[in-house]
Amino acid sequence: MSIYLTLLLLMLPSMSPADLYRKAQAAGFEILIDNHLSGSGVLVDSSGIGLVAAHTVMGRTRLEIRSRTLGRLDAQVVAVDGGHDVALLRLPTRKDGYPALKVAAKAPGVGESVYLFGAPLYRHEILLKGSIARADPSFEYLPDMKYYVRVTHVSGPAPPGSSGGPWLNSQGDIVGVQSGLMHEGGSPVGIAYMAPHSAIV
Q: How crowded is the C-beta side of 60, counted as CA atoms within 13 Å?
């Protein structure tokens, strides 16, 4: 990346928390399997493509999504990347298209603030704040997947239910997808696993 482009990216204005929340709220959704909330997700294309965590839709080809802006819709799993715990859903064709968030042009750096939008502990439309805790992606074992996946470590809360929710930068662009949590003795220790930016670009 050129120095000029890097400087331009650094100069991008941050959104206010309220604007970032509204942007995430429009494109975010919840995953429903057999009428039960299984995780979170986000629309990444106006044609109706959604990005979620693979472990929230394992073994499923069809499911439903629910959001304030879209209501309740059928969705179909169209692609899975188990090595990064991400999957793509397709929603029905919609005349006016769908609200969507774009993927950030670059990965966030260490210490950079990031924001998770989803349904932690089955509370709807929650925005949580964290920060990037490690410069490079690493591997972590996910019990639901029963193998290791490549993740970025984030310092911050990410309770169950937020899996698949988008991690956003301060411009409201997607930098990763919530995957899991680090535990010690069965208790979370405040470090989240995010499917890295490189897995979604």
A: 22
The SS3 call for residue 104 is coil
| HEC sequence for 178-200 | EEEEEEECCEEEEEEEEECHHHC
Q: What is the pLDDT along the chain (201 residues), one digit of tens a residue?
A: 555 444 444 555 688 989 999 999 999 999 999 999 999 999 999 999 999 999 999 889 889 999 988 999 999 999 999 999 999 999 999 999 999 999 999 999 999 999 999 999 989 999 999 999 999 999 999 987 889 999 999 999 999 999 999 999 999 999 999 999 998 887 788 999 999 999 999
pTM (two decimals): 0.91
Cα–Cα distance list, 91 to 102, 125, 149 (Å) = 17, 20, 26
Round to whole Å and give the CA distance between 25 and 2: 34
| C-alpha–C-alpha distance, residues 133 and 25, integer Å | 26
